[in-house]
What does this fold into?
Amino acid sequence: ADYQSGVAAIKAKDFNAAAETLSRVLERFVTTYHELAPECADVYMQYGLALLRDCEEREENANDPFGDAVPRELATGAVSEGAEGEGSSDKEPAIKEGGEGEEGGSAGDD
It folds into this structure.
């Protein structure tokens, strides 16, 4: 029953709860069978998945300075195409012109 609730927690994306539940299940399985017994394989797999997803989720949230206060798309600028378009049109030609100018300038200096 605990194993199933741990798997359900993974599906519900509650990875921390899933890891805690599956940790307890794994302890029981290891005590009953042995840590390398084939009966423990599925529990190890699900427990590892829960730990991995929990870690990924924490890392993703740690890299988001705005947290839940600002939608991720807005914080990264993915939504505001107009503002990005203005900024990039100013920057892109300067980079292209600078790159061409440098090449031409170095050839003229030699």
User: Anything to note?
Assistant: The chain has a mean pLDDT of 76. The chain is about 75% helix and 0% strand.
